[in-house]
């Protein structure tokens, strides 16, 4: 006898079961096809374009929403259009009211090519903190999807554009949907026409400089470009002057340290010469001259030691001054 089964589903954790609410009798050695679900389901035809999946053509598909009230088991689907076979697809289990994109064939009548572009925006923010100067600018990334519909009928195309968490969407204002990996946009292409769909995004780029490495020329350029306010400009000029003074002290310190090393070399040579001298009157004269030269060098070494001590004290003081100036330097300027 003909039977129309009434079916309910019961969720069991992440699984489910179908229950037919009245028994079905099957004779021995016979089989029967029992309809589990026989209901209309919402779906809209569309094309799904993903450059990684199919670069030149979108996939023909259906945006399917489970409106049966039942969980639909996953498996193969056969797609018919106007009673004509159109293709096949596989679907995973679909819970009530869940939406899924099902693709079943390649739409060879719609051609797609993409073009990428990039533009660098001017600096719009300058931050100085803890001895580091950072310049912010935006990079505008543009991707144009050129769609050429050679079909006579219009096509609704859902474009899956790569999603980057560090980018801000500028155009269009919002996507149709957002997934973990893609932004989805919907565009309609009339029959036998072309459409260009543009996606613009901005990513942040920071360029960093150590304040201690800035030169007077750098500061002059930054000031001309309005990257610095008046207070920060004056403090940077003080830092540059303090750096120059520290460099002068360190150069002087290096000079006297080299002089000491040279004196040590000369003294080594003089002492070797003294050991080789005999007792002739001429050699006695040389000995006297060498000893006098050594005495003069010892006097000079004493002065070098004192100068080195003074310069190291100045060096330490100047470093502290520079650290204080840099530590107190802070700015967050929007241009």
Topology summary:
Layout: E1 7-12, E2 15-20, E3 42-49, E4 59-65, E5 75-81, E6 84-91, E7 99-106, E8 110-120, E9 125-129, E10 132-149, E11 155-162, E12 167-171, E13 177-178, E14 182-189, E15 194-210, H1 216-224, H2 230-276, H3 281-327, E16 331-334
Count of separate DSSP helical elements: 3
Q: Could you tell me the number of beta strands? A: 16
- Distance, first to last CA: 82 Å
Strand order of the largest sheet: 7-4-3-11-14-13
How much strand content do the residues show? 35-45%
Order of helices and strands: EEEEEEEEEEEEEEEHHHE
Shape: elongated
Helix content: 25-40%
Provide the domain count.
3
Rg, alpha carbons: 42 Å
> What is the residue-averaged pLDDT?
90
| Major sheet summary line | 6 strands, mixed
Structural class: alpha+beta
Enumerate the spans where pLDDT stays under 50 for 5 or more consecutive residues: 1-5
């Amino acid at each position: 006898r003909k039977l129309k089964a009434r079916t309910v589903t019961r969720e069991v954790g992440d699984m489910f079961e179908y229950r037919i609410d009245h028994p079905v009798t099957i004779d021995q050695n016979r089989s029967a096809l029992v309809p589990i679900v026989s209901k209309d389901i919402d779906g809209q035809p569309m094309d799904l374009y993903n450059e990684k999946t199919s670069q030149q053509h979108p996939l023909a598909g259906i945006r399917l929403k489970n409106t049966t009230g039942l969980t639909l088991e996953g498996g193969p689907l056969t797609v018919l259009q106007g009673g004509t076979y159109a293709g096949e697809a596989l679907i995973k289990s679909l819970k009530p009211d869940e939406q899924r994109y099902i693709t079943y064939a390649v739409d060879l009548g719609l051609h797609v090519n993409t073009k990428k572009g990039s533009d660098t925006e001017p600096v719009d923010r300058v931050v100085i903190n803890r001895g580091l100067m950072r310049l912010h600018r935006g990079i505008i990334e543009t991707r144009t999807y050129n769609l050429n519909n050679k079909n006579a009928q219009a096509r609704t195309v859902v474009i899956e554009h790569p999603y980057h968490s560090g980018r801000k969407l500028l155009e269009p204002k919002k996507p149709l949907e957002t997934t973990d990996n893609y932004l989805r946009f919907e565009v309609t292409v009339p029959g036998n026409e072309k459409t260009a769909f543009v996606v613009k995004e901005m990513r942040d780029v920071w360029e960093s400089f150590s304040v201690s490495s800035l030169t007077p020329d750098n500061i002059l350029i930054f000031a001309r470009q309005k990257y610095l306010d008046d207070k920060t400009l004056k403090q940077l000029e003080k830092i540059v002057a303090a750096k120059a003074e520290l460099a002068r002290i360190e150069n002087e310190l290096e000079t006297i340290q080299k002089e000491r090393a040279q004196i040590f070399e000369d003294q080594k040579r003089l002492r070797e010469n003294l050991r080789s001298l005999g007792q002739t009157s001429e050699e006695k004269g040389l000995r006297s001259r060498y000893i006098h030269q050594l005495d003069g060098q010892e006097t000079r070494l004493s002065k070098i030691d004192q100068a080195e001590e003074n310069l190291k004290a100045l060096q330490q003081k100047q470093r502290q001054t520079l650290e204080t100036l840099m530590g107190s330097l802070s700015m967050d300027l929007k241009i």
